[in-house]
Specification:
Blueprint: E1 3-8, H1 12-24, E2 28-34, H2 38-45, E3 52-53, H3 57-61, E4 68-71, H4 78-87, E5 91-94, H5 102-115, E6 120-122, H6 130-141, E7 147-155, H7 167-184, E8 188-194, H8 200-204, E9 215-221, E10 226-232, E11 240-247, E12 251-253, E13 261-264, E14 267-270, H9 276-297, H10 306-325, E15 329-330
Parallel strand pairs: 1-2, 1-4, 2-3, 4-5, 5-6, 7-10
Antiparallel strand pairs: 7-11, 8-9, 8-15, 9-10, 11-12, 13-14
Helix pairs in contact: 4-5, 5-10, 6-7, 7-10
Bound molecules: NADP nicotinamide-adenine-dinucleotide phosphate.
């Protein structure tokens, strides 16, 4: 069986996912797309055979030739399309965030619990990255002992003018929060945010007055382990994702990237990816390959759930408050429904 997919939002990431799902991922095809910008949607559809352009997201969700939905529109629209997909009884893959407020993510949880089985997966693709998976397996093996600290560095060469200081938390560090919860098998219970003197590259760009970059976050967890997140989004040298878990007996760290290391002129150099696509392309491929296989076969979904989407959004809200107040802010999650046990 080929899973017929409808994609809502054909901007930057939507186009990449259409490309993936209409040829690269086994057992999947894209049959329907829509975008606010109809001209763009038509142009994207024209690159492939067999894709119909629909007037809006609801038309995609309810189309007879659509088995499952991928939501890649702007974040504030996600709740509406995820709820409509659940109402239609169709699987929905929603790019992060699941929704922009914790209250909205709880409405999605309520609808999915009422449906009675998981239909929603959220696009936290780091869980599909081979290096993070090896890191998790190493922790599970017990060789480094119980995890005590996770140091997570999230570095971008630059960001666009629309990027605000809150986005360092809700758009950037959110990936570090999700992967930390998954690696440490823990919930986040509190957060503090501090900022050193700002990087001049961030301040000098258009819209830079508002930016505090880097940010340093100290994040508490339910196991007592501490997560330290550093976001540096104007660091110029590359898109560099750092990570090290410090345990009672040893540590496990993400290795440097690059297929080769050059030794010359008294130095060793390895390549640093230029952007998130270069760093996480194969993680996105694996994410959709596993999602399509699970949805098609009816196996239970194992990817990030509505609960994970809720937890991430709740942590981000606390992080924004911590940034604004300079105070520690607690994260109090509701009781976890059995569906997500
Ligand atoms: P983008 O380039 O702005 O694309 C979003 C597209 O959705 C735009 O073409 C927009 O049209 C369209 N759109 C907005 N509201 C719509 C609606 N109600 N119905 C149909 N189309 C609608 O943004 P992006 O960078 O692709 O990001 C999209 C989502 O993916 C965001 O939630 C983002 O956080 C997420 N994302 C995740 C990752 C990751 O690492 N997992 C990476 C990148 C992005 P208009 O511009 O005309 O409004």
């Amino acid at each position: 069986m080929t899973l017929r997919i409808g994609v809502i939002g054909t901007g930057m990431i939507g186009q990449q996912h259409v490309e993936r799902l209409h040829g690269l991922v086994p057992g999947a095809t894209v049959t329907a797309i829509t975008d606010h910008n109809e001209t763009l949607a038509k142009e994207v559809a024209s690159r492939y055979d067999g894709i119909t352009v629909h007037p809006d997201g609801h038309s995609v969700i309810n189309a007879d030739d659509v088995d499952a939905i991928v939501v890649t529109s702007w974040g504030p629209t996600h709740e509406e399309f995820v709820l409509a997909s659940i109402a239609a009884g169709k699987h929905v893959f929603c790019e992060k965030p699941l929704a922009t407020t914790a209250e909205a993510t709880l409405r999605i949880i309520e609808a999915e619990v009422a449906h009675g089985s998981r239909l929603v997966q959220v696009g936290y693709m780091r869980r599909y990255d081979a290096a993070y998976r090896e890191m998790k397996a190493t922790i599970a093996s017990g060789v480094i002992g119980a995890p005590l600290v996770f140091m997570s560095g999230h570095r971008n060469p630059d960001v666009p003018a629309i990027y605000t200081r809150e986005m360092a938390i809700v758009d950037t560090a959110v990936h570090d929060f999700d992967v930390a919860r998954w690696l440490l098998d823990a919930e986040i219970t509190g957060i503090r945010v501090i900022a050193p003197r700002s990087n001049r590259h961030g301040l000098d760009r258009e819209g830079g007055d508002d930016l505090q970059d880097p940010l340093l976050m100290t994040v508490e967890t339910s196991t007592g382990a501490i997560i330290h997140v550093e976001t540096s989004v104007n660091i110029r040298y590359g898109y560099d994702i750092r990570g090290e878990v410090i345990g009672e007996d040893g540590t496990v760290a993400l290795a440097d990237r690059g297929l080769t290391a050059v030794r010359a002129n008294g130095a060793v150099s390895v390549q640093v990816p230029g952007d998130f696509q270069a760093r996480f392309r194969s993680a996105f491929d694996t994410e959709f390959t596993e999602w399509v296989a699970q949805v098609s076969s009816g196996e239970p979904l194992t990817g990030p759930s509505s609960w994970d989407g809720y937890a991430a959004t709740a942590v981000c809200a606390a992080g924004v408050q911590a940034l604004q107040t300079g105070e520690r802010v607690g994260v109090d999650l509701v009781e976890k429904p059995a569906l997500y046990a």
